[in-house]
Amino acid sequence: MVRITTLALLLAAVPLFVQSNHLLGLFIGVLFSAYLAQSWNILGGLCGQFSFGHAAFFGVGLYSSLILQVDFGWPAPLALVSAAVAGAVAGLFVGFVSFRYGLRGSYFALVTLAFAEILRMTASVVSFTGAGSGKYLPTRLGIEHLQFSKSGYFYFILVLFVLVHLLVLAIQNSRLGARFAAIREDEEAASALGVDVFRYKMIAILISSAVAGVGGCFYGQYYFYTDPHIAFGAAVSIEMLLAPIIGGAGTLFGPIVGAVVLRVAAELGQSLTGGVPGFNLILYGIMVILIVRYMPDGLIGGLRRPWALMRRRPTAATG
Amino acid sequence: MLSLEILLHSVVTGLMNGAVYALVAMGLTLIFGVLHIINFAHGSLLMVAMYGVFFAVTLLGIDPYVTIPFMMVLMYFAGYGLQRYVIGNAGQGRDTNILLITLGAAVVMDNLALYLWTGDTRQLQLDYMMAVVDLGFALIPVTRIIAFVAACALFVAMWLVIERTDFGRAMRAVAKEPFGARVVGIDVDRVYAQTMGIGTACLGAAAALLLPIFYVNPQIGNVFVLLAFTIVVLGSMGNIVGALVGGLLVGLVESVGGFFLGDRLGQVGIFVIFILILTFRPQGLFSARV
């Protein structure tokens, strides 16, 4: 709690010092990645259900927010709420079909992946999503339209970022979090101890996908545009799962660390190669293999281990 | 409107595509049956093989079908190395770790291809690609017929290897009981790598058969990887004959679905089957067996 508040206050001061729009954009990107990573982390990290198609929930939120604003004239804040609802509905559907029949591990990963692909293909054919040409949001600056200046967007995503971290912290410190952890560590044992596994997996995917849906809404407000590939493409799903894995799945700060590493690596790759397409994803791929190989608990876990050893050693010597 | 002749044509096309899909899926199902891992890099390895064939044809002027044996050997070693030095080393036997490693390898390959060969879609230009064979009720391009026949032949060959050779027997032993296999003196890690090699070698052949009827770009792996997963799940994971039946079925659904709903929604039909099968009958239509 203290660490989150400190981090939030430090970050809140950033626009006072950072004048360059490019750098501020980078901060927004990192916070946004961390937000999405945290959404994946609720289901994948805390509850141990690895989704390979989290773009499905992100994209449903993104499209529903844009469609409701553009075609139905809904006010933006209401669209934000409905993005959460739409994401949650998609999540509950996927959760129901998979968890009801006990799909887990690789099977669950495959179902989520296929679900995102179905949505991507459908969105590129049907007309109410604008098919392949995508969906635009007209510019209407103002807080009632959830459209801001660059620093305004920074505070917008900062608020979302803080809220999702408080949410994860609250889950971790509650019985709900204990049940999630029990399911993650050993489903049979959890069930034997009286945890209703199906119910708590549904709760995990509900929260996770609602958070992802809101992330989709933010994307729409920030970039004013989406197409099927942006919303449901595999790249989104991969980024959402890589950041928490690299940082440390199931931890509070892992997704932040992962998001920072990924975004900075992408930025460095871009400037080193002059924006060659695909280069940052090559780096991501190599990074994930190395991390899984040498630090299976992510950067946070990998750094925590020697740190804990260092702290333990003196007591071991004296005792 | 719904002319019977066009329907019949799409049925035949579907079956012919299905045989090649089955070849791709056979590699995947073999790997799953023996190593019990889901190899996300499978589609990307196919993409790499397709580029290999493409450059062999355009730069060296070799006929695509002549490249089959060479591509199979090359891909065998690629798969062998991938298992021995990357997956086996880094996976540490944890399901999710292996999943992530193969995903990472896929991401690296896809984007390396994008980096090296750009995102352009490339197609072969060969003089016999326009030739057709009249089957009486349908005109079928000769390239599709070659693909169908060759895929079926490779299928039979693979089945014989698994059923009739010592290597096949060792593979089946490892699939059933890795520990017991180790006890009787089988080098399990080697069999794992060999299986991965053979599964990947199937892709070398599939690439050469696919390229004349298809195209190649860095994203092509994604198209086939989900297709192959659907087939593998449909035909029961690890079941070779199931992969053939599943492949033919999926080819049929795609082309007949495309006939009724339009090309892109035909693909959606495949994924709907995929999710339905995974949820209601995750063991597939048959029972699992290598």
Strand order of the largest sheet of chain B: 1-2
- Number of discrete domains of chain A: 1
Low-confidence stretches of chain A: 315-319
The number of helices of chain A is: 15
Radius of gyration of chain B: 19 Å
Proportion of residues in helical segments of chain B: over 70%
Q: Would you count the extended β strands of chain A for me? A: 2
Bin the helical content of chain A.
over 70%
Distance between the termini of chain B: 45 Å
CATH class of chain A: Mainly Alpha
Distance between the termini of chain A: 33 Å
Shape of chain B: globular
For the largest beta-sheet of chain A, the strand count, sense and barrel status come to: 2 strands, antiparallel
Low-confidence regions of chain B: none
Strand content of chain A: under 5%
For the biggest β-sheet of chain A, the strand order reads 1-2
**Number of DSSP E strands of chain B:** 2
Features:
A: mainly alpha; ABC transporter involved in vitamin B12 uptake, BtuC; two-stranded antiparallel ribbon; 2 strands; 1% strand; B: 290 residues; mainly alpha; two-stranded antiparallel sheet; 11 helices
3D structure, described in words:
Chain A has a single domain (2-314), classed as ABC transporter involved in vitamin B12 uptake, BtuC. Chain A has 15 helices and 2 strands. Chain A has helices at residues 2-12, 14-17, 21-46, 55-70, 76-99, 106-123, 150-172, 175-185, 187-192, 197-223, 228-232, 234-247, 254-273, 279-294, 298-318; strands at 135-136, 225-226. In chain A, α3 (21-46) crosses α13 and α4 packs across α10. The two termini of chain A are 33 Å apart. Chain B is mainly alpha-helical and 290 residues long. Chain B has helices spanning 4-35, 42-60, 67-91, 95-117, 142-164, 166-176, 178-183, 188-210, 220-234, 240-261, 263-280; strands at residues 132-134, 139-141. Chain B has a two-stranded antiparallel ribbon with strand order 1-2. Chain B starts with a helix and ends in a 10-residue tail after the last helix. The chains are: A mainly alpha (319), B mainly alpha (290). Chains A and B meet through α6, α12 and α14 of A and α3, α4, α9 and α11 of B.
